[in-house]
Structures are given as structure tokens and as C-alpha cells.
Amino acid sequence: MQGNIAIVGAGSIGCYIGACLNAAGFSTTLIGRERIRNQIIEHGLRVTDWRGRDSVRSIEQIQFSLSMNAISNADYILLTVKSGDTESAAKSIREHAKASAVILSFQNGTQNAAILKSNLPHHKVIKAMVPFNVLNNGEGHFHCGTEGNLAIEANNDEHADLILAFERANLPVDLYENIEGVQWGKLIMNLNNAVNALSGVPLLEQLNNRSYRLVMKEVIAEALAVLRVAGIKPARTGKVIPSLMPYILALPNFLFKRVASATLKIDPQARSSMYEDLMLNRKTEIDYLNGEIVSLAKQHGVSAPVNQSIVNLIKTAEQEQDGSPMLSAKRIQNVIKNAVEVK
């Protein structure tokens, strides 16, 4: 690939993807926060994953900038900022990027590409999705703890150079003519981000606890019901079929572990990005995950008390700025129960 790649919003996902591309020999510039740049200066940028990847790039090997000026020569701009920052990121892209730059929205939620297109009418904007989880372990170390292929809305003959770069960086890509169903499928899976953040335990430990799974079952079952009312069919992401999730989550532990071992690859280190946000006292993306289900329900004249309860709990944790509240499954279930009864 002869072109340049810039990653705007180089946090956990951005640093992981950027380091993988850079290690494979592709020109990659990361634009992110000073805190992360300082870690890379001191420790290097290390990326690991559940399959055994372990690569370190020094600050001399990888370009890391604090300024959006660094995107001026980029042919592809991968956007990995939080959903709440999409509009401001679009403004900066409009000011600094060349007109031929292609923008890929690798963000949570389903509305970001539309926001980008309305703010960047002269740029090509592509919907994309990251299925895996990356945890910032500190000291410039980012660990991918779950499996999955990147998803991009494109035809087979489009952007072949970028697709090849991902493949050579061992970041497999699935192409879709219409990615909307995949985005909703990912959102359904991401509804657990909040439950994991509230629990304060690693994802694998949480999933192996049936009481937490029953919380997830309620959250996902309600979301699927809302999507049915809205006429939206979420597509499978990887091996997981969204419509089957409530049934799988309700299984006894011994059956769940058998099913999950064939469908979910999660290592013991993995946690949700929302857990990391709470620990760093950052605003979460709850409004673009569970909050999006609540908004969709209101649009179609139905309620979503379960997901609204999760939104409320996360917003309380944000306000308290004391990291994860480490709520038991029973505590979360009681909050949900009260909300459903009030409805």
C-alpha cells in the first residue's frame, strides 16, 4: 500500500489497530492524547492478543501526534473517537484533511456515519465496525482479549489497498454491501459493556456467573423486542446470533460453558471499554449503546425500563467518579425489577 493511514482518536482500539498496521510495514499516524503519547515515549507501544500476538513499536517507529494537522497527508482516516466526539472530530477533519481522504467510522453505535456524512459532504464516508475488545493495561500496553473480524461496508473491488493492509497486519476484514444489520448486531452484543462496567469483574468471570448472565438476558431480550417493533433485524457478528442470546444466557453454567466455548473466545484479562472509562473518570458511551435502545423505544411508542435502568446506573457511576460501583448481580436485578414494576 502506497497511501498513508491516520487514526483519529488513538485510544485502546486506535492504538491497537495502528500498532498492528505499523508493525506490518504500513505508514500509520496516530492522533491521540498526551497521556498515551507519554506512555509510548517511556515504554513503547505494545500490542498483545488472546492468540499470542506480542509486538512493540518504539516512538521512533510509530508516528504519534497531538495535533489534527497530522492528518493532512492521509489517504485513509480511521475514526475511533467516542461517539459523543464525532461532530467535533468531523469539524477538525474538514479543516485539515485533503478532499480525497476516505473516512472510516470504526465507532460504537449506529448513527456516527450519518453525522460524519452531514458534516463532511465532500468526503467519502464508510461505515465500519470493530467486533473485538481492547483493554488499556497501562504503560503503553494494549491487549485484545476477544476474537472477531473487522467489518467494512464496501464492495469487493473497493479500497483493495486498505483491505490488503488489514489482512497483512493480521486484522481480517469482512465486507458487506449493507452493514446496518451488523452494526445493530454489534450494539446488541455491546449492551453487556455496561453490565460488565457495573460489575467490576473481568468479562470471563462475569459471563461464567449465571446471575450476571440473567441480567444480560433481560437487557438483550428487551433490546431485541424494541428492534422488532422498529422493524430492524440485527445480523450475527462472528459466531453469535443475536436472537439466540437470551436463551443461551439463561442456560445453566455447565451448558453455557459448552456453548460459549464454541462461540466466544475471551481471555481472562478482557474487560469492557466502559469499565475502563469509569476507572479513568471519563464520560462513557452509554447514550450510544443502551441509551440508543431507550431512544428507539420512545420513537416507536414503547418503553425500555430495563435498559433505562442500566443507563441510570452508569450515569450515577459517572457522577460519583469512583470507578466501577462493583454492583452484585442481585443489586442490578433489584433495580431493574423496581423499574419494570413502576412502568
Question: Could you characterize what this model shows?
Answer:
This protein has 343 residues and is of the alpha/beta class. 46% of the residues lie in helices and 15% in strands. The protein is globular and about 55 Å long. The N and C termini lie far apart (56 Å).
The secondary-structure element order is EHEHEEEEHEHEEEEHEHHHHHHHHHH
Q: Classify the helix fraction into a percent range.
A: 40-55%
Q: What is the CA-CA span between the terminal residues?
A: 56 Å
Q: So how many helices? A: 15
Strand-residue proportion: 15-25%
Average pLDDT works out at 93
* Sheet having the most strands: 8 strands, mixed
Q: Which stretches are low in confidence, meaning pLDDT under 50 for 5 or more residues running?
A: none
Write down the Rg: 20 Å
Content-based structural category:
alpha/beta
As laid out across the biggest beta sheet, the strand order is 5-2-1-6-7-8-11-12
DSSP E strands, number: 12
Apparent shape: globular
Explain briefly what this protein structure is:
This protein has helices at 12-23, 34-43, 86-96, 112-119, 160-168, 180-190, 192-199, 203-207, 210-230, 245-249, 253-263, 273-279, 290-299, 305-320, 329-342; strands at 5-8, 28-31, 45-49, 54-57, 63-65, 76-79, 102-106, 124-129, 134-138, 141-144, 150-153, 173-176. The chain is α/β, with parallel strands linked by helices and 343 residues long.
